[in-house]
Amino acid sequence: MSAISLITPELKRLDEHEADAIVLFRFAEAELLSGITSLLDWRLLGHLSRLIIDGFFQGERDETLLMPLGRRLPQDCLLVLGLGQRDRFDQQVFESQIDRMFSVLDGLRAETLVLALPGRPEGDCSTAQAIEWFLPCYDRRGGERTLTIVEPVGAQKVMLPYIERWRLKAVALS
Question: Alpha carbon of 72 to those of 35, 38, 40, 77: distances in Å?
Fold first, then answer.
């Protein structure tokens, strides 16, 4: 059975979660890295910032960046997916990018992941919206993956009832 857990956006929490991949999303017009993305960039000695500054990755819709993490983090790789323009972000974009994420993860054979949901670190969708939009995508495409969602404590409190209902439904159906 699939599993979902939650952690706070702190490097020490990421250090405690081995996974095949860390997955982040980026808007095209985002100028600065923030939240968990900036913490990862710091740990990666600014490598992610350099890729963005050099124009290698901008966050355009359907753009994909995959980079190995080596020994800097316990996860194998970082996957960053472009969301496109912030003013066009909606449920359809959210769901299409989650589906795209699962397609890339299928190709990588990644079974465990740490994930910051699209639009959440920037506040472009509410906590409730994000988890309501995410869970059906996870049911449809997530398979048997073990997933850790990165969210602050306040957002975790909002997500927990949704995740618990999802778990109960999955148990009832099995």
Answer: 18, 14, 9, 10
And the tokens for 32? 């600065």
Q: Tell me which residue of 98, 24, 93 sits closest to 61, measured CA to CA.
A: 93
Which one-letter DSSP state was computed for residue 90? Answer: S
Q: Which residue from 77, 76, 34 is spatially nearest to 59, judged by alpha carbons?
A: 34
What pTM was computed for the model? 0.93
Q: Domain range spanning residue 132? A: 3-173
**Residue that the structure tokens 């490097």 belong to:** 11
SS (H, E, C) 50-85: HHHHCCCCCCCCCCEEEEECCCCCCEEEEEEEEEEC
Q: What is the mean pLDDT of the chain?
A: 92
Q: pLDDT tens digit string along 21-65?
A: 999 999 998 777 888 999 999 999 999 999 999 999 999 999 999
Count of domains in the chain?
1
